[in-house]
UniProtKB/TrEMBL annotation:
It comes from the Bacteria. The keyword Transferase applies. It catalyses: ATP + protein L-histidine = ADP + protein N-phospho-L-histidine. The lineage of its organism: Bacteria, Bacillati, Actinomycetota, Actinomycetes, Pseudonocardiales. This is histidine kinase. Residues 32-114 form the Histidine kinase/HSP90-like ATPase domain. Keywords: Kinase, Transferase, Two-component regulatory system.
Length: 115
């Protein structure tokens, strides 16, 4: 997924993993995967030129995925807004949450789900 982002954009995509991701329940693993994929798609569409860092933390009973982009050059592409809504709904269905906010010039998506 991250190599595809790099091959499509030419932009760096750093991945940091802390903890064991393979032992996650199937629904948590799917939420993490789909959120990462959608967040990378959003960066590619809305912030061409942005680099991205994905950070995964597995803690005792929770895991967290954070996707932060550097901002790049804002594009004029607009979406229907269902990407973020879908990510949030998927998290809530399994007892997790998703929040987003602007960072220094970029954007952050943070998913937290039970592990």
């Amino acid at each position: 997924m991250t190599s595809k982002f790099h091959s499509l954009t030419g932009n760096p995509c750093q991945v940091d993993v802390f903890g064991e991701a393979d032992a996650l329940p199937a629904e948590a693993r799917l939420a993490v995967l789909r959120t990462a994929r959608e967040a990378l798609t959003n960066v590619r569409k809305h912030s061409p030129g942005a680099s991205v860092t994905l950070t995964f933390h597995r803690r005792d009973s929770w895991c967290e995925l954070e996707v932060v982009d550097s901002g790049g050059t804002p594009s004029s592409v607009t979406g229907n807004g269902y990407g973020l809504v879908g990510m949030r709904e998927r998290a809530e269905l399994i007892g997790g949450n998703l929040d987003t906010d602007r960072t220094d010039g970029g954007f952050r998506v943070r998913l937290q789900v039970p592990a």
